[in-house]
């Protein structure tokens, strides 16, 4: 062992995925080809160093992974990032009402996507698909005390994750 280095510091430890706050903005959809800054989602999720969802870390803290849907002409919805296995493989989705699947926004191959600004993802439901652009990714801890914005604060998302959620709160 070299001088001044302990055994613990010389071995590589895999970095743990950290909770991130991801902001998505509508990039385009049928009837709105230019997208809209007034429509999107803000959600909390554990992302690894490559910006991908970490199933291992999510499984340890699924209730901390809240989501808020803001849509210019509709009620703001509060929900959770969820995952299920099915014939199509592992599916990540936003669940706004645990009593029904009708409101779920299912992500297309979200387990393969990198969440970094400028990337695009697709969410679908019974009404169709939306293409969303990743506008920002920030550490949950970095947002503490951030200035007021139209998006929920880190504290609000964390508090919501700890007390449950009401999908009909607007």
Count all strands and give the number.
Answer: 8
Shape: globular
Main sheet makeup: 8 strands, antiparallel, barrel
Distance between the termini: 59 Å
Query: What fraction of residues sit in β-strands?
Result: 35-45%
Helix content: 10-25%
When the domains are counted, the total is 1
What low-confidence regions span 5 or more consecutive residues with pLDDT below 50? 5-14, 147-151, 163-170
Number of helices: 3
Whole-angstrom Rg: 17 Å
Tell me the strand order in the biggest sheet: 1-2-3-4-5-6-7-8
What number is the mean pLDDT?
79
Structural class: mainly beta
Helix-strand string: HEEHEEEEEEH
Oligomer state equals single chain
Structure description:
This protein is mainly beta. It has one domain (15-162). The protein contains 3 helices and 8 strands. It has helices at residues 7-10, 55-60, 154-163, and strands at residues 18-28, 36-47, 66-70, 77-86, 89-95, 105-107, 120-125, 128-139. Strands 1-2-3-4-5-6-7-8 form an 8-stranded antiparallel β-barrel. β7 and β8 (128-139) form a beta hairpin. The radius of gyration is 17 Å and the shape is globular. Residues 5-14, 147-151 and 163-170 have low confidence and may be disordered.
What topology does this entry show?
Blueprint: H1 7-10, E1 18-28, E2 36-47, H2 55-60, E3 66-70, E4 77-86, E5 89-95, E6 105-107, E7 120-125, E8 128-139, H3 154-163
Antiparallel strand pairs: 1-2, 1-8, 2-3, 3-4, 4-5, 5-6, 6-7, 7-8
